[in-house]
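JOB MANIFEST
job_type = single_chain_structure
chain_count = 1
residues = 104
[input]
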Amino acid sequence: MGTQQMISSLKFNRQQRSERKRLHELDLSTTNGGYGEFEDHTQMDLLAFAEFQKEQFAKLKKKRKKKIRFAIFICILTLLVVMAFLMIWNQTDFEIWSAPFFTE
């Protein structure tokens, strides 16, 4: 009786597998979301679009310059901290600290 049940479950699984749709076969674009498709009904003339592009390029250029300035500032600050650490390390006399009672 156990063998017959196993065979029938395998047949059922095979049948279900053949009826199942693959993920690429599903039409996922018809989902019912909260937002609909974006439709742009406004038309921009050529001069306005060129002006808009100039503004966008200027903003990108400004952002890029700001990032570069920030990176240079961080590099200089890091260099100064490392140099200060090395100068302090060089001037510190560690033999005093290794004395048994910190006396000279």
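[summary]
Residues 98 and 104 are 11 Å apart (CA to CA).
DSSP finds three helices and no strands in the chain.
exit_status = 0
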